[in-house]
Amino acid sequence: AQAHYLSTLHGLSVEPLREPPLVTVPKKITQFIDEASRVCTPSNIHICDGSETEYNNLINLMVQQNMAAPLPKYQNCYLTRTDPRDVARVESRTIISTSNKHDVVPNGFNPHKGALPNWMSPEELEKQLGDRFPRCMEGRTMYVIPFSMGPVGSPLSKIGIQCTDSPYVAVSMRIMTRMGLDVLKILNEDTPFVKCLHSVGAPITPGSTRPVWPCNPENTLISHRPESNEILSYGSGYGGNSLLGKKCLALRLGSYMAHKEDWLAEHMLILGITNPQGVKKYVAAAFPSACGKTNLAMMTPNLPGWKIECVGDDIAWMRFNPNTGMLHAINPENGFFGVAPGTSKKTNPNAMASIFQDTIFTNVASTNDGGVYWEGMGEKPEGVVDWHGNDWDGKSNAAHPNSRFCTPARNCPIMDASWEDPEGVPISAILFGGRRPEGVPLVYEAYDWDHGVYIGASMRSEATAAAEHQGKVIMHDPFAMRPFVGYNMGQYFDHWLSFGRKKHVQLPKIFHVNWFRKDSNGSFLWPGFGDNIRVLEWIMKRMEESSPESEIAKKSPIGVIPTESGFNLDNVSVDWNELFRLDKSFWAKESSDIQKYFNDNLGHDLPPQIRNQLNLIQERIQKL
Ligand code: SAT
Ligand code: MN
């Protein structure tokens, strides 16, 4: 029996859908909603239809409750200020729970030295959830958000149902995913879906105060049960902790599913690049959070005749297409949750053209003419109110370094014509990169697939404000997935290696890039942004070449690097030798750090091919 139209669930009134009875909600789903509401005891349930009216109503409610403020300088834009304790992902409180610990934690992992996803036993998680969820939505409305990661109805897409007590999450999910009636309409009793339960962990009880940004930092827990397709997130209302389609579903559960189903769920942007001759290729690139994925994905090239088009800025789901033999990628998201500071007309004009309509800003500063401001946006206006809501002193951060814009993809003027193609786009190159102020050259190319997988596995980057880590330490971040991999990292490396053994496939070439190398005065050696097209130009030329040596390429111990004459330096002046200098002691230390990281984290589960690559590189470095 299917509930034709939800009007009550065990006695609670359910706000009606637009034109009842429009949809038939599968019983599995009403059961999940019923279960969630029975445990969390919200005072009301609202099934989201995804309409504009609903969005406006929710925004108005947030404005009434001081959770959002209109930004009259722009069209349909709002500003939210969070509790200062709830500003980023909380990796230390993010866990994966499986019945078998080894499915998440490599054998030989050293808990005192390692830094990989946290595992929790099902029994312990049950207890932790029992301490948190019962009655947690008291006095609040529970929003039920049916969403699709990927185009609605595409065979590559995945469905989630998120129950949340945060209207901020409901409106943000409408921007970041395909959400509402269109999703409900395609569901039947057999459609698999991910059960997503989220609470800010701040029930409204008689006499309790009503914080503007409810959250519960002391008890935050972001938990995943990949075996039963469940995500349970408690205590944080921010970004990757609460918009459960993004990191939790599309990457953590996504990578777990991808491992089982022979595809890849990766922390990657996807872009299309067209050269002046009209040849077009697609590239995917993995950089850690807040390292410029959005800027690269929307780049305005500084070379005439070149064109970049955007498919996605954060997540790629990829599988080899049996017809073309190529790795096809889709962007499962529907919007951008981009870092605001540093975004300007100069660094990312396409983002600036996207974000001043239909956008929710979080933790940026505001101006007295109803606009926003952040570090690196341009001229400092008068009368700035900082992200805490105080008059800005001009010294501390005006905007929080992890402040964000949340904007629909359709606003971006350079979305690729195929960005919603259910087949995905064919990927010709994969880039790995990070913030490396020292030692790492602008670009190098892997000798082969296994070497490329080693390069992904050995990625490191300076810590950023996207998670709770303090200071600018260089962190290991394999494939930019350390905070997001949903299963044993050794098996994850092996999964990547397995594609190199596939028959009848066209493997993309793999490169490493670093826009962030600095000279001895601490200035960047490379202009970056629109000039990164020069690196992409070289990469595109290398797609046509198979030998490691050519007019434009030569071998080095760490990989294939450009020759100076084979790289377009028209109208830029750079210290080429310094950009590509390979220092023997730096690389010896780098590879021994990586060896240590592998030993402490991957232990016996490190695939032998990766150890072999490490040995080969160490031998080549000796000859430097
Ligand atoms: O806060 S998010 O996890 O959504 C953004 C990021 O860290 O990449
Ligand atoms: Mn990200």
Automatic annotation (TrEMBL):
<dbReference type="GO" id="GO:0030145">
    <property type="term" value="F:manganese ion binding"/>
</dbReference>
<feature type="domain" description="Phosphoenolpyruvate carboxykinase GTP-utilising N-terminal">
    <location>
        <begin position="31"/>
        <end position="259"/>
    </location>
</feature>
<keyword id="KW-0464">Manganese</keyword>
<comment type="function">
    <text>Catalyzes the conversion of oxaloacetate (OAA) to phosphoenolpyruvate (PEP), the rate-limiting step in the metabolic pathway that produces glucose from lactate and other precursors derived from the citric acid cycle.</text>
</comment>
<dbReference type="GO" id="GO:0071333">
    <property type="term" value="P:cellular response to glucose stimulus"/>
</dbReference>
<keyword id="KW-0210">Decarboxylase</keyword>
<dbReference type="Pfam" id="PF17297">
    <property type="entry name" value="PEPCK_N"/>
</dbReference>
<keyword id="KW-0547">Nucleotide-binding</keyword>
<dbReference type="GO" id="GO:0046327">
    <property type="term" value="P:glycerol biosynthetic process from pyruvate"/>
</dbReference>
<dbReference type="InterPro" id="IPR018091">
    <property type="entry name" value="PEP_carboxykin_GTP_CS"/>
</dbReference>
<protein>
    <recommendedName>
        <fullName>Phosphoenolpyruvate carboxykinase [GTP]</fullName>
        <ecNumber>4.1.1.32</ecNumber>
    </recommendedName>
</protein>
<dbReference type="GO" id="GO:0005829">
    <property type="term" value="C:cytosol"/>
</dbReference>
<dbReference type="GO" id="GO:0042594">
    <property type="term" value="P:response to starvation"/>
</dbReference>
<dbReference type="GO" id="GO:0006107">
    <property type="term" value="P:oxaloacetate metabolic process"/>
</dbReference>
<dbReference type="GO" id="GO:0016301">
    <property type="term" value="F:kinase activity"/>
</dbReference>
<dbReference type="InterPro" id="IPR008210">
    <property type="entry name" value="PEP_carboxykinase_N"/>
</dbReference>
<dbReference type="GO" id="GO:0004613">
    <property type="term" value="F:phosphoenolpyruvate carboxykinase (GTP) activity"/>
</dbReference>
<comment type="similarity">
    <text>Belongs to the phosphoenolpyruvate carboxykinase [GTP] family.</text>
</comment>
<dbReference type="InterPro" id="IPR008209">
    <property type="entry name" value="PEP_carboxykinase_GTP"/>
</dbReference>
<dbReference type="InterPro" id="IPR013035">
    <property type="entry name" value="PEP_carboxykinase_C"/>
</dbReference>
<dbReference type="InterPro" id="IPR035077">
    <property type="entry name" value="PEP_carboxykinase_GTP_C"/>
</dbReference>
<dbReference type="GO" id="GO:0006094">
    <property type="term" value="P:gluconeogenesis"/>
</dbReference>
<dbReference type="GO" id="GO:0019543">
    <property type="term" value="P:propionate catabolic process"/>
</dbReference>
<dbReference type="GO" id="GO:0005525">
    <property type="term" value="F:GTP binding"/>
</dbReference>
<keyword id="KW-0808">Transferase</keyword>
<keyword id="KW-0418">Kinase</keyword>
<keyword id="KW-0670">Pyruvate</keyword>
<dbReference type="Pfam" id="PF00821">
    <property type="entry name" value="PEPCK_GTP"/>
</dbReference>
<keyword id="KW-0456">Lyase</keyword>
<dbReference type="GO" id="GO:0033993">
    <property type="term" value="P:response to lipid"/>
</dbReference>
<feature type="domain" description="Phosphoenolpyruvate carboxykinase C-terminal P-loop">
    <location>
        <begin position="263"/>
        <end position="619"/>
    </location>
</feature>
<keyword id="KW-0479">Metal-binding</keyword>
<keyword id="KW-0342">GTP-binding</keyword>
<comment type="subunit">
    <text>Monomer.</text>
</comment>
<dbReference type="InterPro" id="IPR035078">
    <property type="entry name" value="PEP_carboxykinase_GTP_N"/>
</dbReference>
